[in-house]
Write a structure and sequence with these properties.
The complex is a heterodimer of chains A (256) and B (313).
Chain A: H1 2-22, H2 34-47, H3 49-80, H4 84-98, H5 102-113, H6 117-141, H7 145-153, H8 158-195, H9 201-210, H10 214-242
Helix pairs in contact in A: 2-10, 3-6, 3-8, 5-6, 6-8, 8-9, 8-10, 9-10
Chain B: H1 2-26, H2 38-51, H3 54-86, H4 88-103, H5 106-117, H6 121-145, H7 149-157, H8 162-199, H9 205-214, H10 218-246, E1 251-253, E2 260-262, H11 271-300, H12 306-312
Antiparallel strand pairs in B: 1-2
Helix pairs in contact in B: 2-10, 3-4, 3-6, 3-8, 3-11, 5-6, 6-8, 7-8, 8-9, 8-10, 9-10
The chains are: A mainly alpha (256), B mainly alpha (313).
């Protein structure tokens, strides 16, 4: 019952879409019924067309995201702990860099990297990097001072402090950054694929729109929306299990 | 002395990076055709001012952001108040659907909006509205929820009616959160704007980048790009300035010092500054609307500005 109360609206929305389109109240050529869209997805999966695009898009998004995590988390940790005073120097440059629009970058990266996978992965990387870096920095710098003092008292060196205390204590905020970054990665990837690609879900959407295969376009749109929700759900579950989401006590939120 | 030190701390790295960019051109470290130096880029911006009507495109881009901001404010804030104060049960029923909508990628909606509204100005503005609407909506909700119930009770005990409570307690209490939503919304929509102009537009800064890149005018890509970055930083800064000026009383956690307190250096914004900012807002909006109209006219009239046609080909 609780499930119905919470998600019933989505079912109502989908059935309303189906109903309005079937009865012709909204034009079924422009808005094919939801079941037709599902059938199209099924058909495209059987022919393998959808599988190719989904695999490529997911690969690009996830590789870019992992690279951004690999760079953003250590960078944020460094700026939040060891190089705290250095942060004042880098605040403005980081702000300027984070304002460099990934699409702008796309046009410039093509000059250096060609039109293969590299520029697409790079712009996903660039987009994810900033939320991850900034929230890691935020988390690392606001670790409860008493925890650090306790760690010192037990004889931890600066590296030990970083890995044993700062990293776990900052993990809720790091995780928030990762979730935001993963959300952005799909976001930007679809646009990048719309602008210059010959494969991927963004390309599929734009290509089927331009060739007026609206069933296919809706299929791609539904799959993109579904993938976005799925990725968000997966990272949310991982976070709840491993990142101490509930345990905000390690980070000073209130008084210090 | 203190001032000199702050300026040094704040700008030294940025100046160093810009210097490096310039020197890379002077000593030819990288190919100038692919990576023009800072001075070349600035020169290009100056020449673009007359050559491709840079001012028009700048205003068109800014105006799109502002118009979408106004529409999403009109849509998001009343609905958020309605759902939070009047229809909370109804909202809890449809919350999941709204959350799903807010996660949906705006680009995959772009074709839908084109089907709805045609490929003109409205499709672009509706994408931007979609993007900026959700952060404003959800942060308004959060703001209303986080208003201290003690304040509401106090007002009630002083015999304040629901309208007085709304305007004197709930709205001011929620305003910092609403403004935060506006900040996120504007930043997101400025981000998306550039992409939307690249995929299907005939004017705007994103369009300049896109068509310059298609015509292999690399310096122009850098010129328009630099302008976009500067504009983004400027928008960010002015919103932050406005926030600390309007909500100087709001306590917030400093990310570095890790302590909660009033915003550092927050002072009440003076009425003159506020009036100037409002005037700039209105001016950009009205000039931008005129420039959008002018861009449309230019596009349809090949005899007016011949160079302009080159750019649309």
């Amino acid at each position: 019952m609780g499930f119905l109360r919470k998600y019933g609206c989505i079912i109502i929305f989908l059935s309303l879409w189906e109903l309005l389109s079937r009865t012709g109240i909204i034009n079924p050529i422009f808005f094919p019924p939801f079941t037709v869209v599902l059938a199209t997805i099924y058909k495209m999966t059987l022919t393998g067309e959808m599988v190719i695009h989904v695999r490529l898009s997911l690969m690009r998004a996830l590789v870019g995201f992992f690279l951004a995590t690999l760079m953003g988390v250590p960078l944020g940790l460094m700026l939040g702990t060891w190089f705290k005073s250095f942060y004042k120097f880098t605040e403005l440059p980081l702000e300027v860099l984070s304002q460099i629009n990934p699409f702008l970058l796309f046009h410039i990266l093509i000059l250096f990297m060609g039109i293969g996978e590299a520029p697409k992965i790079t712009i996903v990387f660039w987009t994810c990097l900033w939320p991850i870096t900034f929230s890691t920095m935020n988390g690392a710098s606001s670790v409860n001072k008493n925890l650090i003092k306790a760690g010192r008292a037990f004889g931890l060196g600066s590296f030990g402090l970083l890995t044993k205390i700062v990293l776990p204590a900052a993990s809720p905020l790091i995780f928030a950054g990762l979730r935001l970054g993963l959300g952005y990665s799909m976001f930007m990837l679809v646009a990048a694929e719309m602008m210059g690609a010959s494969s991927g879900l963004g390309f599929l959407t734009l290509n089927s729109q331009e060739s007026f295969q609206l069933n296919k376009m809706y299929a791609a749109v539904v799959v993109i929306a579904f993938l976005g929700l799925l990725l968000d759900f997966i990272i949310y579950m991982i976070g709840r299990k491993y990142f101490l989401l509930a345990n905000e006590g390690y980070v000073t939120v209130g008084e210090n | 002395m203190w001032l000199a030190k702050t300026i040094f701390v704040k700008y030294s790295v940025l100046v160093f990076l810009l210097l490096l960019w310039e020197l890379s051109g002077v000593f030819n470290w990288v190919d100038q055709a692919f990576f023009p130096s800072l001075s070349t880029t600035v020169e290009t911006i100056v020449s673009m001012w007359s050559k491709v009507h840079l001012f028009m495109h700048l205003m068109v881009s800014l105006c799109r952001v502002l118009v979408s901001l106004i529409i999403s404010l009109i849509l998001a804030i009343p609905f958020a108040f309605l759902f939070a104060r009047v229809l909370p049960t109804f909202f809890s029923r449809i919350e999941a659907l709204l959350r799903v909508f807010s996660i949906i990628n705006p680009y995959c909606l772009f074709p839908l909006f084109v089907v709805f509204f045609g490929s003109g100005e409205i499709a672009k503005i509706s994408v931007l509205t979609w993007v900026s609407m959700w952060p404003i909506f959800f942060s308004t909700l959060a703001g209303i929820k986080n208003v201290d119930p003690l304040l509401v009770k106090t007002a009630k005990s002083m015999d304040a009616g629901p309208i007085t409570i709304f305007f004197k307690v709930v709205l001011p209490g929620a305003l910092p959160s609403i403004f935060n939503g506006i900040r996120i919304g504007v930043e997101m929509s400025f981000f998306i704007l550039i992409a939307a102009e690249m995929t299907g537009a005939t004017a705007g800064l994103g369009w300049i980048v896109h068509s310059a890149s298609a015509l292999n005018q690399v310096t122009m890509v850098y010129g328009a790009g630099l302008l976009i970055v500067v504009l983004g930083v400027f928008l960010n800064r002015s919103l932050n300035f406005l926030r600390s000026g309007l909500f100087f009383w709001k306590e917030e956690r400093d990310p570095i010092a890790g302590i909660t307190g009033p915003l550092v250096g927050a002072k009440r914004i003076s009425n003159t500054t506020l009036a100037i900012m409002a005037a700039v807002f209105v001016a950009v909006l009205s000039i931008g609307l005129y420039e959008i109209y002018r861009a449309e006219v230019m596009l349809n009239d090949p005899t007016v500005i011949p160079e302009y046609r080159v750019w649309t080909e």
